[in-house]
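INTERNAL AUDIT FORM
Audit reference: QA-55
Scope: verify that the stored structure record matches its stored sequence.
Auditor: D.O.
Record contents follow.
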Amino acid sequence: MDGKESFIDLLLFHRRLRCLVAIDLKIGEFEPESVGKMPFYLTALDRLAREQGEAEPIGIILCKEKSRTIVEYALHDARKPIGVVTYRIVKRLPKELKGQLPSPEQIARLLEDVR
């Protein structure tokens, strides 16, 4: 845009909601500035990538920790649909997810085809 590039961390498409989902990954705790470029990304996706019949893009900020109050204040005047969720790092894949995700070897083979 205007000769400059911007990159969101992850961009997915939600089939049931029929919309693009922009995910911004944060290493640490949610801070008000964590909202950062999300409104910009959502506007760009809405104007440049959304196709006819699709819903408005939504944004998810994925962070290690969050304070509900700080999130509420930071997003109070947001006009775009933005959510904040936390993640946790585990050493082993939970039992309920085993068999649902490809193995590291399968991922490596898939990535070889991309190159």
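Auditor finding: record pair retrieved intact. Residues 38-48 form the longest helix (11 residues).
Action required: none
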